[in-house]
Amino acid sequence: MPWYAARSVYHFGVKNDGTNIFEERVVSFEAADWPEAHAKADAEALAYAEDRNLSVHPERSGYEQDGEQLIDGYELWSELFESRLSLQEFYAERYAKYEYHPD
Predict the structure, then answer these.
(1) Is residue 77 helix, strand or coil?
(2) Which of 7, 14, 28, 81 shows the smallest number of beta carbons within 10 Å?
């Protein structure tokens, strides 16, 4: 079965000066196809957010991995960012603003 990686973005917290902290996280999933992987990514992202009392952006972005077998639900990458923007504004600025749209 193929492996997929899915990115989720969370509102991680607020610094003392009011600056928002966001986490971008990429997790791997084994699935028959992208819809199944997307469903697994949604469930994992919601559980991760709930367990840590975080807000999660509703959109997932992902891709099919090429290579060896991975571990289902394994965190591949995580990075924290800070901004004065809201979760929705941060997501739009970081991801939607520069999306590639082929001609």
Answers:
(1) strand
(2) 14
Instruction: Using DSSP, state whether 33 is helix, strand or coil.
Output: coil
Q: Report the distance separating Cα 78 and Cα 68, nearest Å.
A: 21
At position 98, the amino acid (one-letter code) is: Y
Using DSSP's 3-state secondary structure scheme, residue 86 falls into coil
- Residue 37 · residue 31 · CB < 8 Å: yes
The label of the residue with tokens 């193929």 reads: 2
Angle at 57 between CA 56 and CA 63, to 5 degrees: 105
Query: How far is residue 102's CA from residue 23's CA, in Å, rounded to a whole number?
Result: 29
pLDDT at 83: 92
pLDDT tens across the length of the chain (103 residues): 889 999 999 999 999 999 999 999 999 999 999 999 999 999 999 999 999 999 999 999 888 887 777 788 887 888 888 999 999 998 898 888 777 677 7
